[in-house]
């Protein structure tokens, strides 16, 4: 499956790169499709905005000129009807129209007959003869005269408008000098852009001079822009803008300008609104920047997708490799493995578990394993008994597995199929420490149990068969040593004594083997009764006084609280346990050492400690102290005799009484064995059973 996966995905890298190139091209095309039309629209919008500004200025300028021209026409009508009202009409018109700097009435020969100035006092010397001016020529043709823009004596732009009058009125024309500073206010009130950026709106007269500009110095300096083709086009009477590249120009700073020019037909002037292209199209530039950044991000995203795709392929390949490896490991295990969740639903079941329980994983599917499941299908009975041990014919109590986190083990006997299983239960924990599921590992112990039982039976039979002749040999040797068969020489006595000692050791070995076999079979046999435990321990300790004296050792007993401690136990079995501990303490302590036996009551338990200053137990061997046939390496070097069954028997006797035993030891400094015995009868187990811990050690 892994090779197929690699062929499907990893074998198509070239196609993936081609698809990536196509995707990049598609991204470029998509960006081009919307970007350039958008930029064109933004540029068009900028032109339309500038045109609307120019149109607004044009309308305001036309309205200003038309208003003042209309005022002149009304005055002309009055004078035409009554020439004698000319002087009063001039005064009234000056008063009502502030843009008028001066008003004059020309006689029929073109000389100023009446003149009024807003700021100057006029005398007869100030009256001019205009008969030779273009103004008078235009008037004589019956046309309205509109002059180019001029600069007044106070440096303000003005224009002259003259309207012809009927000869019956006695005047030939009414002439007005109109101050154009109003136009300065108009263009200054228009916000095209910062002056530093070249943004401005201005008015050009028909000769190319500036009439109004936000920068008044350009007006007073009589700047002429007729050289600009866009100005020339507008003055010729047509609307123009710099979208026509032939009309494009640069300002004094060398910046390309975006400009719109509208003709003012009334006067032949031009209205111009201009701004540097960089400022006017800043939104386009920002849009282009956004597009570039967006395109870059899209390419980056595509690259990340491709990179993640390759990583996904690698991760998937690794996943399938690891999954196949896990499946191979699980399939090769000699123990059954069941993984399940808290529903509980079976998530995984290896072939060995299927074989043991006689059910296939695919037959279970997503079914929730309930106690009633086997009633629907009898073949699920074994699985249900594993999941719910209380339903099994036999289920031991759970025991923690030393050194394994959250792992427990128990023995379960199933009814269908008939199996004896050692079931280990643990959690499935992820890297964050969260519980993701549960495991049950099934180890078939039917054969091990059978072998263990056969071994125990063999040992028991062999020990029984050996004990009878050994007992006969013992009594025979004893009779000979006591002289019942006649007087013995010293050499004969020495030989028989050695034979007697060896026979005693053989009898002890046989007894230890019998005791171990009975313990394993759960038939050691206990007779419980109330025991005065402090007197019991004191008597046993005194029995070792002679043995201790021979080694110049101190052996003492101490009841720490001095109170009588009564326990419920088997006196013979407890004596066997204490004797084993005391004998080891004395045997493996050098001459001059000390052995102490202490007793104290703690709650519902009697606490007994037997400490010595002996050879101690090596750290690397301490885990096996209570195993059968264990003897420490340093002890074997000291003394070759011993069965290695003593501490195994001690531990099982203490456990049968409902107590516990533990020790501390340091090689060369001695050991301290401590065990507890319950005082209350209720704390003693009701029945004897084979020990699970010892069995776990054997497998």
Give your account of this protein's structure.
The chain has 699 residues and is an alpha+beta fold. Helix 2 (13-81) packs antiparallel against helix 3 and helix 18 runs antiparallel to helix 20 (646-656). It starts with a helix and ends with a helix. The model is unreliable at 691-699 (pLDDT under 50).
Under CATH, the homologous superfamily of the largest domain reads Histidine kinase-like ATPase, C-terminal domain
Largest sheet: 7 strands, antiparallel
Instruction: Indicate the low-confidence ranges by residue numbers.
Output: 691-699
CATH class of the largest domain: Alpha Beta
Beta-strand content estimate: 15-25%
Mean pLDDT score? 82
Q: How many strand units?
A: 25
CATH topology category name of the largest domain: Heat Shock Protein 90
Which structural class should the secondary elements be placed in?
alpha+beta
Helical stretch tally: 21
End-to-end C-alpha gap: 37 Å
Shape, please?
rod-shaped
The tally of domains stands at 5
Level-2 CATH architecture of the largest domain:
2-Layer Sandwich
Global Rg:
61 Å
| Helical fraction | 40-55%
Write the layout of secondary structure elements.
Layout: H1 2-9, H2 13-81, H3 86-96, E1 100-106, E2 112-117, H4 134-140, E3 145-146, E4 150-151, E5 157-164, E6 173-179, H5 181-188, E7 200-204, E8 210-212, H6 216-220, H7 229-235, E9 240-241, E10 257-264, E11 269-276, H8 277-280, H9 282-332, E12 336-340, E13 346-349, H10 351-357, H11 361-364, H12 373-376, H13 381-387, E14 394-395, E15 399-400, E16 408-415, E17 418-429, E18 435-444, H14 446-481, H15 490-521, E19 529-532, H16 533-543, H17 545-550, E20 554-559, E21 566-569, H18 571-587, E22 594-602, E23 605-612, H19 633-638, H20 646-656, E24 661-666, E25 670-678, H21 692-698
Pfam families: dCache_1, HATPase_c, HisKA, PAS_8
Domain PAS: 322-364
GO molecular function: phosphoprotein phosphatase activity; phosphorelay sensor kinase activity
């Amino acid at each position: 499956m892994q090779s197929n996966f690699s062929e499907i995905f990893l074998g198509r890298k070239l196609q993936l790169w081609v698809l990536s190139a196509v995707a990049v091209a598609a991204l470029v095309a998509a960006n081009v499709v919307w970007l350039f039309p958008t930029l064109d629209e933004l540029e068009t919008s900028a032109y339309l905005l500038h045109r609307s500004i120019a149109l607004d200025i044009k309308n305001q300028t036309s309205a200003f000129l038309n208003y003042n021209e209309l005022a002149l026409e009304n005055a002309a009508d009055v004078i035409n009807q009554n020439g004698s009202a000319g002087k009063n009409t001039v005064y009234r018109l000056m008063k009502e129209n502030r843009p008028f700097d001066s008003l004059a009435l020309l006689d029929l020969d073109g000389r100023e007959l009446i003149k009024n100035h807003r700021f100057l006092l006029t005398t007869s010397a100030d009256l001019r003869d205009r008969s030779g001016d273009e103004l008078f020529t235009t008037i004589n043709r019956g046309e309205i005269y509109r002059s180019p823009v001029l600069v007044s004596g106070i440096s303000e732009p003005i224009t002259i408008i003259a309207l012809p009058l009927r000869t019956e009125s006695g005047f030939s024309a009414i002439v007005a000098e109109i101050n154009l500073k109003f136009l300065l206010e108009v263009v200054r009130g228009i916000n095209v852009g910062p002056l530093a950026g070249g943004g401005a709106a201005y008015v050009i007269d028909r000769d190319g001079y500036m009439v109004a500009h936000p920068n008044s110095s350009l007006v007073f300096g009589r700047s002429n822009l007729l050289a600009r083709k866009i100005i020339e086009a507008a003055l010729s009477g047509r609307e123009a803008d710099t979208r026509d590249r032939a009309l494009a120009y640069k300002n004094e700073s060398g910046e390309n300008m975006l400009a719109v020019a509208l003709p003012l037909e009334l006067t032949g002037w031009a209205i111009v609104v201009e701004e540097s292209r960089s400022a006017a199209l800043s939104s386009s530039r920002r849009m282009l920047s956004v597009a570039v950044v967006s395109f870059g991000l899209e390419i980056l995203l595509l690259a990340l997708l491709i990179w993640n795709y390759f990583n996904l392929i690698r991760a998937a390949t690794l996943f399938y490799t690891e999954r196949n490896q896990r499946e191979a490991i699980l399939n090769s295990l000699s123990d059954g493995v069941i993984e399940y969740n808290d529903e509980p639903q079976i998530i995984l079941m290896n072939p060995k578990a299927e074989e043991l329980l006689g059910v296939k994983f695919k037959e279970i599917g997503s079914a929730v394993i309930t106690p009633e499941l086997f009633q629907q299908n009898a073949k699920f009975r074994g699985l249900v008994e594993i999941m719910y041990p209380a339903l099994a014919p036999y289920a031991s109590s759970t025991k923690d597995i030393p050194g394994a986190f959250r792992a427990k083990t128990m023995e379960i006997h199933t009814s269908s199929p008939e199996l004896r299983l050692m079931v280990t239960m643990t959690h499935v924990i992820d890297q964050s420490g969260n519980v993701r599921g549960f495991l049950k590992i099934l180890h078939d112990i039917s054969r091990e149990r059978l072998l263990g039982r056969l071994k125990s039976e063999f040992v028991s039979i062999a020990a029984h068969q050996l004990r009878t002749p050994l007992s006969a040999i013992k009594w025979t040797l004893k009779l000979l040593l006591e002289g019942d068969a006649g007087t013995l020489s010293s050499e004969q006595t020495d030989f028989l004594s050695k034979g007697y000692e060896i026979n005693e050791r053989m009898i002890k070995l046989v007894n230890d083997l019998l005791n171990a076999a009975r313990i394993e079979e759960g038939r050691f046999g206990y007779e419980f009764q109330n025991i005065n435990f402090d007197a019991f321990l004191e008597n046993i300790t005194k029995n070792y006084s002679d043995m201790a004296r021979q080694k110049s050792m101190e052996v003492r007993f101490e009841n720490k609280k001095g109170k009588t401690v009564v326990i419920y136990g088997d006196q013979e079995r407890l004596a066997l346990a204490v004797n084993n501990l005391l004998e080891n303490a004395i045997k493996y302590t050098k001459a001059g050492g000390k052995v102490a036996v202490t007793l104290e009551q703690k709650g519902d338990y009697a606490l007994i400690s037997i400490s010595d200053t002996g050879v101690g137990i090596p750290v690397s061997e301490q885990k096996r102290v209570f195993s059968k046939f264990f003897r420490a390496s340093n002890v074997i070097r000291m003394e070759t005799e011993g069965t290695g069954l003593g501490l195994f028997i001690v531990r099982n006797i203490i456990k049968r009484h409902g107590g516990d035993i533990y020790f501390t030891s340091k090689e060369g400094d001695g050991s301290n064995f401590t065990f507890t015995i319950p005082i209350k009868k209720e704390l003693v187990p009701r029945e004897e059973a084979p020990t699970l811990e010892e069995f776990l050690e054997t497998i």
